[in-house]
Fold this sequence. Notes:
By secondary structure, chain A is of the alpha/beta class. Chain A has helices at residues 38-52, 74-87, 107-115, 130-136, 142-155, 172-183, 208-228, 247-254, 280-288, 303-316, 328-336, 353-357, 359-366; strands spanning 11-17, 57-66, 88-89, 95-100, 120-126, 158-165, 188-193, 232-235, 238-240, 258-261, 266-269, 272-275, 297-300, 321-322, 342-344, 348-351.
Amino acid sequence: MRVMQAKTKTYGLYVHVPFCERKCRYCSFYSVADHESVIDSYLDALEIQSRRLESKLPLKTLYIGGGTPSVLNLSQWHKLISIINKYFDTSCLTEATTEANPNSITHEHISFLKDNNISRVSLGIQSINDYELTVLGRVHDKTQALKAMELVNDSGLNLSCDLIFAIPGQTLRTWDKSLRTVMDYASHISTYQLTLEPDTPLAREFTNEELNSQGYALYRYSQYILPRHNFIQYEISSFAKENHECVHNLSYWNHDNIIALGPSAVGYIDGIRYSNPRTLNEYFSAAMNNFQDESFTHEELSPHERAIELAILSLRTRYGINRKDLLPEIERVLDSMPDDLFIKTPERISLSKRGMRLGNAIWSELIDL
Amino acid sequence: MTNQKNIRNFCIIAHIDHGKSTLADRLLESTGTIASRDMKAQILDSLALERERGITIKLVPVRMNYESDDGNKYILNLIDTPGHVDFAYEVSRSLAACEGALLVVDASQGVEAQTVANAYQAIEQGLEILPVINKIDLPSARPDNAKQEISDVVGLDAGDAVLTSAKTGEGVHEILERIVKDIPAPAGDPDSPLQALIFDSVYDNYRGVICYVRVINGRIRAGQNIMFMSNGITYPVNEAGVFKPSFTPVEELSAGEVGYITASIKTLAEAQVGDTITDALNPAPEALPGYKKVKSVVFCGFYPVERDNYPQLRDALEKLCLNDSAVTYEPESSEALGFGFRCGFLGLLHMDVVRERLREEYGVELVATAPNVIYEVVKSSGEIIEAHRPSDFPDASEIVEIREPYIKLSVFMPSEFTGRVMQLVQDKRGTYKSMDYITPERVRLVYEMPLSEFIVDFHDKLKSQTRGYASLDYELIGLRASELVRVDILVNGEAADAFSFVCHKDQAYNRGHAVVTKLKELIPSQLFEIPIQASIGRRVIVRVNVRALRKDVLAKCYGGDITRKRKLLEKQKEGKKRMKQIGKVSIPQEAFLAFMQVDSGEK
């Protein structure tokens, strides 16, 4: 039995950098391609939002995502890091990640990150196959991907790679190749099934049903091959070598507090989820008004809804959920489902490999109990 | 006061599109009953459905004044016969109100199946038959062949048939002359006790039931107390009148005349077709022969398209039944469609007519389930029960015999299609009775077959097999024992009543296979494998499995994804709520709908 730790209140910080060189053909995240002049204004607005927060909140994790944070130039990076250091307490930071694109990351960048306490780089590799990268509309190619991974490795930073499966034209062989290649560099791999979001270019060419049928075999294969190379599946889409799980991401699934900076970013503080103004323009006008409460969209879940959501989120991870924390109705539903979906111990319930493949179907049974 | 000798009561017997309505219009026009400027095309077709399909189910009766070539003045009453087998009983009542019939045959199509059946009925009732060859203006017209067919098939001498074109008006005058000359005046005694035959009745919102009557004996006038002989109910007559064709009151209707009466009668059930009206104070010793209560033979479920509209459907059905006493209905509920009614009809066309009327006249949008018949089950206890749906059937061990309604079917068609039609009828469990050549090119096939096979899709199949050249007629010939079985469908081991069905034992495997295969397509994969079985009693005859779900779309789930994800799941759950749970299995509504072969009326 674990000793309950006295809960010193720490936070995760998520910073959304909404700029990309070019929009990928599958992406529905908020980002703008035409940015040079606005990045500085963006950083100013970010500072205004940070200033408005209670000062020096202690951070446990930091995650700079996007968009493409690596499109910021060094002086902009400087500004960003100084904002964080100025307004937050980073002394107990255990993990600091930044996302980067293989084509825009440079040696200088990496040195800078390393000098500024960034511990982890998440590269949007997506695939090691040039054809697949073209289908996705990515700006980099295989050579750049390999070079970027080498750069990060050489620097000693932890490397996480994102890979996408169920790309039109992808085969088990090319998927295997992508997986094996990144395994040689990374200590953390996230695998995402290509999900067509409405109004993206790719969604006009394919349907999710077409891709989903293809996804089964590829996902199953990742569940097979990655653990054989010591990547443990600790969440539906996340595999990591021992002690390399992404602590920041785990906070989402534990309902831990996350502060969100930047347009469209979503935070979660004491049971209340809030979204920042969605577009850059909205974000700028909110900044001009010093980020009043009306600038944010709040969502407060009832304790019951929160319990259900927490059960669903916890079940995403290999740690599952403690039976003690389960509402009796949730436990009843889980117990009525086929046993092969779960790993059950007297204390905990977590998903089996098959359960992880069928998460959606399981959660839809729980959603409005 | 009309001279009985100068009355002619007649009807027109014709196949659906052989020009009955047009001919009737011409008759009205040439007798000046309706000025041509008032004619809208086919004035006597009353239902929108009739005009839409270009078919006439029943014309409104009409009284025409005609001065013949020899200078005598006549009253001609045209009483229509419904041109469809569903209304065979009404046909016989209409015929009973006439002394003669025009037998209209299309000069290029020749005699069709229903024409023969109706002509036989007319002959049986002693009517004088006047053959008329219509549409002689068409380039394809072969009037001599048509005449030959009348004499070969119907067995009537058609040598002196009138050649006419209702379209151009040619021959119409001759028809009128022949009606006067060949059709006998009505017999009957105006001074005997009243006997008036109700050959039709309609419901009017303001006047209640309007009875269309043919006075056989005696007289009827406003103020008189009358009695319906089948039920003994009495009413004072409000009004007696004739059809000009609008309702026109007269002082009196006497023996031989055709007209209507109103008497503030509330429902059609009180004044049914075939009943005899007599004088309440001086009743006739007996009713006119032939009255019978009509019985529904085809059934289907009517459901509102929007579930909330159930009360609207109920009110509409109530009102509709005021003027169509042949419709029966009782509430039922369905897993897929909610609350609705099981309705009984005289036949398929009647069913369509009712559905159309509900839509047109009452604005009710409805979903109709596939039609079925009533079975009679003899139990080992000796008890006989009527089974409307598979769930009415007792356990197989208690069944001694199952009986189902049979029909005698006649199909007329070009001889080249004989083989295909025989195959089709045999597939539908038909038993061969006879085959003869009407002409060297045309064949009549007679089969006996179960009504249940007929009502499903027989007509459509026949049409497609014969490129529309076949015509058919049928009559009910009663119940017969059949080797029927109830096939149950088990989903994950649990009986799913909505999918069970009754069929002949030889078809059980094929149909069971079709149903489970269809369900396999329609039931989405779930967290576990789902066996779907078809069984007769305990014996499983088909089994398929719905494979367990293998993988869902698994998206990433951080920060903002969480809310989005939850909303997505909630939406999916909404969709799931519309599914019906059978045991642990969720079955989508489409599965029920597909199985019911429902159609919402868009044809």
